[in-house]
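User: I'm curious whether this sequence folds into something compact or stays loose and floppy. Could you predict its structure so I can see for myself?
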Amino acid sequence: MYFWLSRLRNSLAAKVLLLIALVLILCLGLHSWGTMHFLNKYTAAKLSIEADRLSKTILLSTRYAMMANARSEIDQIVSDIAKHPDITSVRIYDKQGVIRFSNVQSEVGTQVATDAPACSACHSVDPPKVFLTLKERTRTFSEHDTVLLGTITPIMNDEGCAEAPCHAHNADHTVLGELELILRTDQAALGLAAVQKKLLSLTGLIYILAVSLLVLGLRRCITNPVRKVIASMQRISEGKPSGLKRMARTDELGQLIDTVVAMEHAIAKKQDELDKNRQEYQDLFEQVPCSITVQDADMRILKYNKEFAERFNPEPGAYCYEAYKGLSEKCPDCPLDKTFQTGRPYCSEESSINPDGSKTHWIVHVSPVFDENGKVVAAMEMGIDISARRRVEERLLTSEAKYHAIFNHIPNAVFVLDVEEYTIIDCNEMAERSYGFASGEMHGLSFVTLFPEEEQEKAKSYVKAFTALNRVRQKRKDHSLFYVDFRLSPAVYNDRNVLLVTATDVTDRLETEQKLIQAGKMATLGEMATGVAHELNQPLTVIKAASGFIIRKISRSQPIDSDILKTMAEEIDSHVDRASQIIDHMRAFGRQSDHSLERVNVNAVVSSSVEMFISQLTLRGIAVKREFEENLPEILGVSNRLEQVFINLLLNARDAIEEAEEENPNTDKVITLTTYSTPRAVVAVVEDTGTGVPAGLVDKIFEPFFTTKVVGKGTGLGLSITYGLIKDFGGTIRVQNKEEGGAKFTLTFPRSQ
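Assistant: Here's the prediction. I'll summarize afterward.
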């Protein structure tokens, strides 16, 4: 026994084998335990899933019988299912915990307490839970030395339960009851035990086989080669040749033998490499593109490289302050002095005046040099020339000051915004004056707060989506409002992405445009006078006729039939409404409109414009065709301004048709109005059968005060105002002559969404 213990203590192979055997026991044991634990968990989970699936199948099989309240059929289903050898009991509870159906008839009608296993899962909290996980609905317990698995499945309320004629439940109830199913697990346990027994047997067999193979492998691959190496090393210690030769093996033992053989050669080779490296480092020291010196504690230069020699041409044994700056004593706040005092590296920026009057700048890095006792015996100083960089920095500062002056003197307000939060990072003086803020007050404010409160949410999306915003309402510090045009573009400011916003105050321009547009409306109302007179004459004629009839009847003391009187009163009422609508329409059209945009339906605006002129056009024999797309998307605009656009185009079409009629009395007199949409735009087309636009004047008709009409018949403002209004709504207008005669105006507006 002692022999084997001694051999085990002195044998590397025995120790390795014992260690591997212990590791194998631990690993295989953990593997077997983990596998059996997994099988237990897997079997339990599989039983739970199968029980839940079986419960749901039972519920589905009894659903029709429950809906029909066929209790005998449900009893039969429960009784048949319970005959399965693995099922011990099937119970159906109602919401109050009463057993309504069971394979054990003596249980039917009994009530179960809320703390019972079948009820406690839901009723453990107040109010009771409605939805349970599969784990919460499953329990394992023992009864008469038999392990049983119980699962509960809620019976949920649905539309069929709430509408059944015989046992309708309140639709507000979520759970109507539950199904409890109890299964035997002994068959599954027997199968699991058999599998575990086979697993343990296989693990033992694998362990025995692995240990046997390890014994053979260690003897061949480790024990015998190590004994040879030990014998060879003993011969080397005795001064004898080792007899070892390089081996073809590439494992650790082969490397060990090769190392012993190459030891003497390696020492000589390492010495050669050391000399070579020393020369390489000396060359690097001389050729590095910066000044390097080594000074002692007295600041006397001990060594220096080629760059330092060429730049400063030092005297032998010179002090560093003499060589670098031509001083007679050390520099104040000298980093070299600090390094000797603290033993830590330091960095500083130095400068000197050259003989030609220019300045030289360099960055100095000083590092300590220690002896074997940790004492600072010297310091290495490295200087990097930054004169060119300093000159560039000075030019950059001058340029920055120039552009900052330009930035502050731009006649428009300019903001620099954070691209995420829209915070004002910077702004020029014009922005502060325009918005009534003192210098520096706007920095850090949210750009969105400059919009009226009701428009701030929309402003965030507008700023993010558009590169230009026109006629935007803004709020000064004193809460007074004014209008601006925005131009937005991404930029880089101090190495961060920003949004550059330029704001132009257009309040005065809009007021002038408003006056011009209002003048155009007044001119249009003058054009509408004839048609309006005709429109008002019709209801007045009807009212006059009805009132005359009533007066005659009253003068003759003749009774008026009630039906006739009612009909006349209805006619008078409808025509008064018609006259009121005409007057209201003219009043709304003539009223000055707000600058804010709203959602507008183009079909409604075109129809309203036509209704104002339909009688006038009809009297002149001009037909109006309408080809509107149904459910036309909306656009952003101002309703009565857009109406002015179409009225101007209708008036021009009318005049062009009358001019064509003078040249050719047989010409067709038709105005066609068409609307349609594309994925990104809404399009309105106004066509006429008139004279068209004279050749060469297509590009000029939208200019202010330009007209092709005779003097006194046109102001030249209609199409100019029309062009400006369409641009304000983000749209375009295009005119072209038709081959069959007449002009075609195409208006395109972006869809509001």
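Summary: The chain has a mean pLDDT of 76. The two ends are 95 Å apart (CA to CA).
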